[in-house]
Design a protein that fits this description.
This protein is mainly α and 83 residues long. It has helices spanning 2-14, 19-34, 43-54, 60-72, 76-79. The chain has 5 helices and no strands. The protein is globular.
């Protein structure tokens, strides 16, 4: 039983990440860095959280709206204000 759990965890960790979540989190990470923001940000955690939300039909629209905001803003200051 323990072995099956370990395999499940490893499979979840190695699943490919969506381009949507990678693009969002890369842009946010770049903006946090370039603005010397004090916002705590971990790109890997961002992608993982995004994937969870993206795979939940109730939150999929929110992820898409956030993507449009983050990728549609020219300035990093505006990106960091996206809901």
């Amino acid at each position: 039983m323990r072995f099956a759990f370990v395999l499940l965890v490893l499979a979840a960790c190695t699943q490919p990440r969506s381009k949507t979540c990678t693009d969002i989190c890369t842009r946010e990470s770049d903006c946090v860095t370039s603005t010397n923001s004090t916002i705590p940000f971990d790109e890997k955690e961002c992608v993982a959280a995004c994937e969870v939300l993206r795979n939940d039909q109730q939150n999929l629209a929110k992820v898409e709206q956030h993507k449009e905001c983050v990728l549609g803003k020219a300035s990093c200051t505006d990106v960091l204000e996206c809901p």
